[in-house]
């Protein structure tokens, strides 16, 4: 007997065997058990998620010789014929190759006749969106009021192309993309039944490569078994898919955390030696960054990974600042989008990583090697500067610790304490600037007002819209930076701001200043004699949006 591919051999024959799509199975099961069955169903979703399979199982449930049931026997002549694709009352029509109105008229004429063998004549129209407009128009009346022995089951990957008149005549079920965990679980079940040895890492690679489609995943599984000579090894699967191991992606992030450009390029070269899909590598990088952010911002979050990879992720989460993770993620997905515009894929990949290195936030980001080794004419730094210790991962304000002099001139003066107001409180805007609050820290601080000081606690009145940002670890990192600026240990407590105090926030004052500058600029243009003459003589008008203040 010839070999049957896994996607066909393991195609579900009952609703209970389906992977995912519980919302569709529940609705159809209840309809069959209660006898409340519609005459037309539309199944939508991406390829390989079960549209045609569900339609076949539904047709089998309608015509099973042991009665209508959500659990067909699978043994009678009708069930066997449906499984083998030879049941005469199940008519499968490929709308991609039968698009014309004449094909639909033939369906309409045959629908009038009673089923030959079963209780219902079931029309399964696959890729129904490919029908022509006249074909849809010819089908509408029969689709709305078919004979009692006819059921229409329509399947499509592109429901937006269907006329609303067709959509309104059908019960619509949107089939979801399968999760990698669901695909991996089905693969393990199949491999166990087939007595094929496998590695869990190989299954995870294939599940991610399936991109939500179980059929695609099983096709990749067939290919991987053939590639591995009857076994499934992670290295073989990565070579076949053009992907890289998780450890190599972690090596890239480790080099970024250290600000080591040479090691970063070495990691790129090692990845390139596998001839991978560089777009997929950037996707993997974005996925790891997502997990790092979950570890940093979600208390008690537990990773799926265990062992060395899990420990490495926790270590990186402690070394890379949360705002850096956000920046790296944006650069990764932007680089993924721009790969097609690069001279070649490797160049685009390397430039994305170098962009992460070059645009690290904060004042303590690593300087380019050329600048660190600049000649004396450009910098008074002695040669020993290149041996300075690396900047800390979070780049907090420097603590008071002895450090070797890096310039011949006088050492940098200690930052002056921020000015204080009449109540003895630090001037909030000056403190924000001196503490070096940037990115999300700046957004949080600019929308707050320093209300009072309670011991070593600064009480900040914050706008309710930004209260969701006042969470760990942002608050503790903000406390650390403010403590460095004030020279004492400070805690922060956030309370809701009064409506009257909203105008006193730095953000509100900055907005008022911008509006005032804009109004002054517009008025200056209106008062200009030349503009007035153009308006008077030619009916000209000033477009307010085109006027910008100097320096904006």
From TrEMBL:
Tell me the CDD domains matching this sequence.
AAA (cd00009), HLD_clamp_pol_III_gamma_tau (cd18137)
- Give residue ranges for domain AAA+ ATPase: 37-178
Cite the InterPro entries for this sequence.
Answer: AAA+_ATPase, ClpA/B, DNA_pol3_clamp-load_cplx_C, DNA_pol_III_gamma-3, DNA_pol_III_sug/sutau_N, DNA_pol_III_tau_dom-5, DNA_Rep/Repair_Clamp_Loader, HLD_clamp_pol_III_gamma_tau
Recorded superkingdom: Eukaryota
What is this enzyme's catalytic activity, as reactions?
A: DNA(n) + a 2'-deoxyribonucleoside 5'-triphosphate = DNA(n+1) + diphosphate
The enzyme's main class, written as a single word, is transferase
- Which biological process terms from the Gene Ontology are attached to this UniProt entry? DNA-templated DNA replication
Keywords from the UniProt entry? ATP-binding, DNA replication, DNA-directed DNA polymerase, Metal-binding, Nucleotide-binding, Nucleotidyltransferase, Transferase, Zinc
Q: Cite the record's Low complexity compositional bias ranges.
A: 373-411
Positions of the UniProt region annotated as Disordered: 363-425
- Report the EC number(s), separated by commas if there are several: 2.7.7.7
Ranges of biased composition (kind: Basic and acidic residues) = 363-372
Q: Does the keyword ATP-binding apply?
A: yes
What SMART domains does the entry give? AAA
Listed GO MF terms? ATP binding; DNA binding; DNA-directed DNA polymerase activity; metal ion binding
Cellular component GO terms, alphabetical? DNA polymerase III complex
Pfam families per record: DNA_pol3_delta2, DNA_pol3_gamma3, DNA_pol3_tau_5, DNAX_ATPase_lid
The text of the family note is: Belongs to the DnaX/STICHEL family.
What's the name of the protein?
A: DNA-directed DNA polymerase
């Amino acid at each position: 007997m010839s070999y049957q591919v896994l996607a066909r051999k393991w195609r579900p024959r009952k609703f209970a065997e389906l992977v995912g799509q519980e919302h569709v199975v529940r609705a159809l099961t209840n309809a069959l058990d209660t006898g409340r069955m519609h005459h037309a169903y539309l199944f939508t979703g991406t390829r390989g998620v079960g549209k045609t399979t569900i339609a076949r199982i539904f047709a089998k449930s309608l015509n099973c010789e042991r009665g209508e049931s959500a659990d067909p026997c699978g043994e009678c002549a009708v069930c066997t014929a449906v499984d083998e694709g030879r049941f005469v009352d199940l008519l499968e029509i490929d709308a991609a190759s039968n698009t014309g109105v004449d094909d639909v008229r033939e369906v309409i004429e045959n629908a009038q006749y009673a089923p030959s063998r079963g209780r219902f004549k079931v029309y399964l129209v696959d890729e129904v969106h490919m029908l022509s407009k006249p074909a849809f128009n010819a089908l509408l009346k029969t689709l709305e009021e078919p004979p009692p022995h006819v059921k229409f089951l329509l399947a499509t990957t592109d429901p937006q192309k269907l006329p609303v008149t067709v959509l309104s005549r059908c019960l619509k079920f949107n089939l979801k993309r399968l999760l990698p965990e669901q695909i991996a679980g089905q693969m393990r079940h199949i491999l166990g039944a087939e007595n094929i040895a496998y590695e869990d890492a190989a299954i995870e690679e294939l599940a991610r490569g399936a991109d939500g489609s179980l059929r695609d995943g099983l096709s990749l599984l067939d290919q991987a078994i053939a590639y591995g000579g009857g076994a499934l090894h992670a290295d073989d699967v990565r070579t076949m898919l053009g992907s890289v191991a998780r450890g190599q992606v972690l090596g890239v992030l480790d080099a970024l955390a250290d600000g080591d450009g040479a090691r970063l390029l070495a990691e790129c070269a090692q990845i390139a030696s596998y001839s991978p899909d560089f777009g997929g590598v950037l996707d993997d990088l974005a996925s790891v960054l997502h997990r790092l952010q979950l570890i940093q911002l979600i208390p008690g979050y537990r990773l799926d990974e265990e062992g060395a990879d899990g420990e490495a992720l926790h270590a990186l989460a402690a070394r890379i600042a949360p705002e850096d993770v956000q920046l790296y993620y944006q650069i990764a997905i932007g680089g993924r989008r721009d790969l097609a515009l690069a001279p070649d894929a490797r160049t685009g990949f390397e430039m994305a990583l170098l962009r992460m290195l070059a645009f690290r936030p904060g004042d303590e980001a690593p300087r380019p090697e050329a600048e660190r080794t600049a000649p004396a004419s450009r910098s008074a730094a002695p040669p020993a500067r290149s041996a300075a210790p690396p900047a800390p991962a979070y780049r907090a304000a420097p603590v008071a610790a002895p450090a070797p002099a890096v310039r011949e001139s006088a050492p940098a003066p200690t930052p002056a304490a921020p000015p204080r107001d009449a109540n003895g409180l630090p001037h909030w805007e000056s403190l924000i600037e001196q503490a070096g609050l940037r990115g999300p820290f700046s957004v949080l601080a600019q929308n707050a007002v320093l209300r009072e000081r309670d011991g070593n606690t600064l009480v900040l009145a914050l706008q309710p819209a930004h209260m969701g940002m006042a969470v760990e670890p942002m608050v503790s990192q903000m406390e650390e930076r403010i403590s460095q600026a004030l020279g004492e240990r400070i805690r922060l407590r956030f309370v809701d701001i009064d409506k009257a105090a909203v105008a006193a926030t730095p953000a509100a004052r900055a907005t008022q200043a911008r509006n005032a500058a804009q109004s002054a600029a517009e008025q200056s243009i209106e008062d200009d004699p030349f503009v007035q003459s153009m308006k008077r003589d030619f009916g000209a008008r000033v477009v307010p949006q085109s006027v910008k203040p100097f320096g904006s």
